[in-house]
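REQUEST ID: PR-0412
SUBMITTED BY: lab tech R.K.
PRIORITY: routine
TASK: structure prediction, single protein chain
INPUT:
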Amino acid sequence: MASRVDPSRTVVVALGGNALAPESASSSITDQFEHSRASVLPLIEFARDGWHIALVHGNGPQVGDELVRQELGRDVAAPLPLWVLVAGTAGWLGYMLQQVIQNQLEKAGIVREVVTLITQTIVDPRDPLLSRPTKPIGHALSPEQADALTARGVAVGRDGSGDVRRLASSPRPLSVVEAPLVKRLVEGGVIVVAAGGGGPAVYHDPATGYEGLDVVVDKDRVATVLATELGAEVLLNLTDVDAVYRDWGTPSARPIHRMTLAEAEAMLEDGSLGEGGMRPKVEGAVGFVRARGGTARAIIAHLADGSAALRGETGTTIQREP
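STATUS: complete
OUTPUT:
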């Protein structure tokens, strides 16, 4: 059956790269296809309910693995820079997600087209974050692996879970070059996979035009930018935590199911979220709600709870007013 698409409702879904290649599982391509099939199930429900959909996904584990492959094969073939690897992972991860979404739509009897776009993310070439490697990529490193990378001048550090991983610089995204095209496709009912891995970062050179940068842009921040540029009603961040928690990591930790924009901003200012994990997701939610205003809402929820979270039954919803 053809789905009924309501042109006034657009949801941008942000899906982490770890949802496709969890640390607890093998990162073989067979396993990643299996995890992708489970990860896209909420999108099938959204399509059935007539939502316009854009999907942004991370690539942290995958682009880190690509760097390892480049290093192992550098004596046989010239290695590729990080910005090209970001584009490459956006391509094959997009293909994987596109295929499993198409298969699940067909299984559910829903007629919707799906496409992957390699989109470029504009950043400021003078962004001070360019000189500060802070974004973890790749899988967890053993002490021996970390020492070997450090000896070669590669930045490593602990992620939000305490594991040691490679670090890449991550400037703030300003806009998505292809956002107008994404908007036209989404408004036409096409499910679009865009800004994969945050999208390869570019800046505009007055003489040569767009040029790439050897960085990884945060997927959550790009999802915020794209959702704003699309005029989305909802930014839905699906992650491995069921909600934003107050007093996270303490015996008194408790989930927060609804927050006003002011309450979320206060939580960012008091430092209770720390620098990793949930902070970029809440920052993205705040940025989206502030930019869109009105009834726009940002939701942070567990991957398995996507449909219920969109209905307001679980997760954390951030709006200007309750």
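NOTES: Residues 9 and 135 are 32 Å apart (CA to CA).
REVIEWED BY: pending
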